[in-house]
Amino acid sequence: TTLSGGTTYSAGDVSFAVYQDNLYVSNGTDPIKRWTGSGSMTDVAASGSWQSGRRGHFLQIYNDRLLSVLARGVFYFSDAFNAETLSAGTQIEYIGDRSGDVVVGTGLLGVQTDTQGLAAAVVFFKRSSIWMLQGSVASSGIVDQISGRVGCVSGKSIAHTPFGIVFLGNDNVYLLRGAGEPIPIGTQILPALRAIPSGQKVNACGIYQNGHYKLSIAPSGAVRNTRQYWLDMRNFDPSAPEWWGPMRNSNQYSFLAMDVLQANDLPVSTLSTDSSEQGIALTDDARPVMVWLDQNTFDDRGTTITYTVDGHDFGGDSIVLQKDFKSIGAVI
């Protein structure tokens, strides 16, 4: 399936959100697009106050509203139960001051409150700080700073786990469990983190899959993410995190979690114009599989797609044992 239609997309990373059986896609430059599951994509209408808000870098569903988050530290929120309507010009909030500390990604957390028990909260990750929105975005919602010390260097490293949100910070890997300060959990791999070339930190990417947080980074002097470190979260203790690695691999530019694995019908989470930058790891939750695409397109167009498949482990404690497959068949 080739997703097309509406305004042609510029190159760059893309954000996805699913609401009311529609897929919404945004890249911060072009209008938000909607795909219903069939036919072509269409641009979200530029009516009213959506004129600016419909070009968000990140999309997030919160309290039955679509949040369109701009990197410069502002987000627009749609009407309730209608992701494509923004009735009032006041449906806009700022994320802290406008000091130039840009937003690099978002996430959702369950936060313990005094009045509502466990409630959802949106987390906004900036390069040098972290902010959280709790409550009704239309009335009582407040965007509070929860850390002015720790930020996130790459939005693609943000991953939701059963223990909270894990991400690559400016000096460590961190775990965010609620409204408190993030917990450093990457001390064991600090030499590798410090060796990442400064210009490549923004390309670090991570995913939670099969009981592990998997972080892909560039080693010293490299311009590709060719090393992976895996945080074992099967019996996780934040005070004594256990990492495996390094694992050598072809370049991973970003990760994308999927429920269903299909051959050429794979949505891509980046539109890099350099094919050598493409390397997307995909997971199938029903049957843990990691797929690295050395070459990807929106559809096969007669071009062979090559990939590597990692199956289940051997049931022991080691995750570095290798399986060799004598044959692999594809059912299409």
Tell me what you see in this structure.
The chain is mainly beta. Helices cover 3% and strands 36% of the residues. The protein contains two helices and 24 strands. Strands 1-2-3-4 form a four-stranded antiparallel sheet, with no helix packed on it. It has a four-stranded antiparallel sheet with strand order 5-6-7-8, with no helix packed on it. Strands 9-10-11-12 form a four-stranded antiparallel sheet, with no helix packed on it. Strand 9 and strand 10 form a beta hairpin. About 13% of the residues have low confidence.
Level of helix content? under 10%
What structural class results from the helix and strand content? Answer: mainly beta
Global geometry: globular
Order of helices and strands: EEEEHEEEEEEEEEEEEHEEEEEEEE
Contiguous uncertain segments of 5+ residues: 258-301
Distance between the termini: 13 Å
Largest sheet: 4 strands, antiparallel
Task: Give the beta-strand count.
Answer: 24
Number of helices: 2
Strand content: 35-45%
Question: Any idea what the radius of gyration is?
Answer: 20 Å
Mean pLDDT reading: 76
Major β-sheet strand ordering: 1-2-3-4
Topology:
Layout (H helix, E strand, L loop, with lengths): L14 E5 L2 E5 L6 E3 L6 E2 L6 H4 L4 E5 L2 E6 L3 E4 L14 E3 L8 E11 L3 E10 L3 E5 L7 E6 L11 E3 L2 E5 L4 E4 L6 E2 L5 H6 L9 E5 L2 E6 L9 E6 L9 E7 L5 E5 L21 E5 L5 E4 L13 E4 L22
Name its key features.
332 residues; mainly beta; 4-stranded antiparallel β-sheet; globular
